[in-house]
Specification:
By secondary structure, the protein is an alpha/beta fold. It is built from 27 helices and 10 strands. The protein has a 6-stranded mixed beta sheet, with helices on both faces.
């Protein structure tokens, strides 16, 4: 149905244009009164335009049974264009225009071609579809958000725009004086005029001197030379200032993005790959800076040069100017089609690069596993496949660009051939000189480049915000775990209650982990969680640290929901030591005091002693100032675990969670650490362990199975029940977990 509607509209427009051609021919050959009075001629021209518009719209409406917006716009533009040209010619006091009532075949064809090209360009770029408008508005909104992020750099950008304007204005007279030199080569003018034009052209080429009140009959003055020097300064300062603004913007947005990422919940980093995040930080923020800064730079430069060039071209020949401008809508359509395909491929390339980066990071981080299974060739092939996917997308992008450049060059060639043909006719008729034609050709070359740059940048500024969209997606993302709590009491007992919790991990929504889970951790007591792996023991610790939110139920701390406490207060009062602790590059002291700005050296040493880490730390080359390497790679697993315990103890938490922390410790270190943990009577301790010695010391033991608490009580009480705890104990004894 859509194709049929388009064909009907094309057929109706073809009939309307045929009718218009007949109408124009009839008016041209009719014995109309021809007057040279400007007012009468303009009145006749506009009256004829109104007559054509009414006739064409009536014929088209009759053929289609109505008048859709697209044909209506085209017919109005086609009918009014000759009158607009006639009025503009009269206002600018240019040569007589024969495109009004006295329109000939050439003028009619030019107007018809320009109207059709402009209509096609409008329908492609600004369609009537509501859905397309929404898609088109989204890039505009994103672009304005990028511009607003540049607010701290507005003074620098304003200075750059001023220098840009100065530099551009200084580039507009080289072609003008070139034409004057060509005309003076005939030898009919005074030598002083020739040398003045030659000198001014040389100065303009060197310093991009602008046209001033100085004419070719007068030699250049000192003010001209000063302005030439200023133009050179403008050209250099413009690029430097915009580069400065872009660098400042990228640095600022990188900081904002990293801050937003660190506020996200743990589940976010489990669902989003590391390569994608690093790609946003390393590539997309830089593309955002180019979108608003460099593109606006080129846009304004091209716009100013285009307007100035068109004014000079109109003074030389309005007919040739109109012919050259017919290329604009055609170029716009070609550029829009190219930008659509290029943007789609650009997004695919960005995603492919992110996948390849993620694959490389995963292989490098797990190099020990790769080596242990002799999978080097397999992983190399896997990474090569990712690179080949990226290469294939880049090849498609380059192919599209080749076709685009070919079509664009053919369009330029056709325009230049027509311009030279009409220019030859105008010279033969005495309507312009050879020098004027040379100047016009030089102007046309600049105008074509500026128009193409303007169209490309206008579309690219909107299309290239795809990178900004991904950055804003992270900047605007609200963490699924709220951090808006405000409670920060001076005294905290550490009484924890898990009440009817239901939970599933975001990465495995179909696998329930906790189901109606309820448990009480009494203040100042040690509670041990035991049970088979994968039954939810570590999940309890993660929920207590508020890394995730339960689907149902709540966790209370001293009778208040966890979400009501201040995030920083809660992270200090509830500490976790995991089975695989993570250390950061830096010194031992930095890792123990991590996140504490006011932690003294004495507190660091005390925590290290309680974690049985002080002795081995003092034996290191630089003691507490020894670098632990990336991820603590310069330390053994036992040393890393003891530093992690010290990092938790230095905070003096009210609730301490330990998850298999003694698995890498020898018996002496284990006894010392457990004694240090038990020596804090006011601290609530939650232990996840498999060693029988650790479990037996707990005041409360909870057996977890099937996402619920199956049994709970003291070691002796659970043994007397001879239930699930006894079975777990037998398995641990069989496995040698004493």
């Amino acid at each position: 149905m859509a194709k049929t509607s388009v064909l009907r509209q094309v057929f109706a427009l073809t009939l309307a244009l045929c009718l218009d051609a007949c109408l124009v021919y009839a008016v041209v050959v009719a014995p109309l009164e021809r007057t040279h009075a400007t007012c009468s001629r303009l009145a006749s021209t506009w009256a004829f335009a109104l007559l054509r518009c009414l006739a064409l719209t009536a014929a088209t409406a009759a053929a289609l049974g109505g008048l859709p917006p697209a044909p209506a716009r085209l017919l109005v533009a086609h009918s009014a264009l000759p009158a607009v040209l006639e009025t503009g010619t009269a206002a600018l006091r240019l040569d007589d225009n024969q495109c009004g009532v006295m329109a000939d075949a050439h003028c009619w064809l030019m107007c018809a071609g320009a109207s059709l090209a402009a209509g096609l360009f409008w329908e492609v770029v600004v369609p009537d579809s509501g859905g397309d408008k929404e898609k088109r508005n989204k890039p505009r909104v994103l672009f304005m958000r990028v511009v607003r992020l540049y607010k701290p750099d507005y003074p620098v950008m304003l200075a750059g725009f001023l220098f840009l304007t100065l530099a551009v204005v200084c580039q507009m007279s080289v072609q003008f004086y070139t034409g004057k030199i060509i005309d003076n080569l005939r030898g009919h003018d005074l030598p002083s005029e020739f040398f003045s034009a030659l000198l001014l052209m040389g100065l303009c080429s060197l310093g991009r001197c602008p046209p001033t009140t100085t004419t070719c009959q007068n030699p250049p003055t000192c003010s001209d030379l000063v302005f030439c020097s200023l133009s050179s300064v403008g050209t250099g300062c413009r690029g430097g200032l915009f580069t400065w603004a872009r660098s400042s913007f990228t640095c600022r947005v990188n900081g904002k993005l990293f801050e937003a990422l660190t506020k996200q919940e743990v589940a976010f980093f489990e669902t989003v790959k590391t390569g994608e995040i690093t790609s946003r930080l390393s590539q997309d923020t830089s593309l955002m800076g180019e979108t608003a800064c460099l593109n606006v730079n080129v846009l304004l430069r091209s716009l100013i040069k285009m307007v100035a060039t068109m004014v000079l071209m109109l003074q030389l020949s309005w007919q040739l100017t109109f012919l050259v401008l017919m290329e604009v809508p055609v170029t716009g359509v070609i550029q829009n089609i190219y930008n659509t395909h290029e943007q789609r491929l650009k997004l695919a390339i960005q995603d492919s690069v992110a996948v390849a980066s993620d694959a490389a990071n995963e292989i490098i981080s797990g190099i020990r596993t790769v080596r242990s299974f002799s999978a080097e060739k397999h992983e190399a092939c896997h990474y090569d496949n990712r690179l080949l996917d990226t290469h294939a997308l880049k090849t498609r992008r380059d192919t599209v660009r080749i076709v685009y450049l070919l079509v664009r060059r053919l369009t330029e060639l056709a325009t230049q051939v027509l311009m030279l043909w009409y220019g030859r006719l105008f010279i033969q008729r005495g309507q312009m000189s050879t020098g004027d034609l040379v100047s016009f050709i030089l102007y046309q070359s600049d105008l074509g480049d500026n128009i193409r740059a303007l169209i490309y940048i206008s579309c690219n500024m909107l299309n290239s915000v795809a990178a900004a969209a991904k950055v804003f997606e992270y900047l605007d993302r609200e963490p699924r775990v709220s951090t808006e709590g405000e409670l920060a009491p001076d005294q905290l007992q550490g009484h924890v209650v898990f009440r009817h919790l239901n939970f599933v991990y975001p990465t495995r929504p179909d696998v329930p982990v906790l189901q109606d889970f309820s448990l009480e951790l009494k203040a100042g007591q040690m509670t041990a969680l035991v049970g088979p792996s994968g039954e939810g023991k570590s999940t309890c610790a993660s929920l207590l640290k508020r890394w995730y939110e339960p689907l149902d139920g709540e966790i209370l701390l001293d009778g208040e929901p966890l979400g009501s406490y201040d995030h920083r207060f809660l992270s200090k009062k509830i500490a976790l030591v995991s089975q695989e602790p993570v250390l950061f590059s830096g010194t031992v002291r930095r890792n123990i005091a991590y996140g504490l700005d006011d932690c003294s050296m004495d507190a660091v040493r005390d925590a290290a002693r309680q974690a049985d880490a002080h002795d081995f730390i003092t034996q290191l080359e630089k003691g507490y100032d020894t670098d632990v390497g990336e991820g603590g790679s310069l330390l053994s697993k036992s040393e890393r675990q003891r530093i992690a315990i010290a990092r938790a103890l230095v905070r003096r938490p009210q609730v301490l969670i330990v998850d298999e922390i003694t698995s890498s410790l020898d018996e002496h270190s284990e006894n010392k650490v457990l004694h240090a943990l038990a020596s804090r009577p006011n601290q609530t301790l939650l232990v996840i362990a498999h060693r029988l010695k650790t479990i037996e010391k707990a005041r409360q033991i909870a057996v977890i199975g099937g996402g619920k608490v199956q049994e709970r009580g003291t070691h002796r009480e659970l043994l007397d029940k001879k239930g699930s705890y006894c079975k777990v104990r037998e398995k641990l004894a069989t496995a040698g977990s004493y």
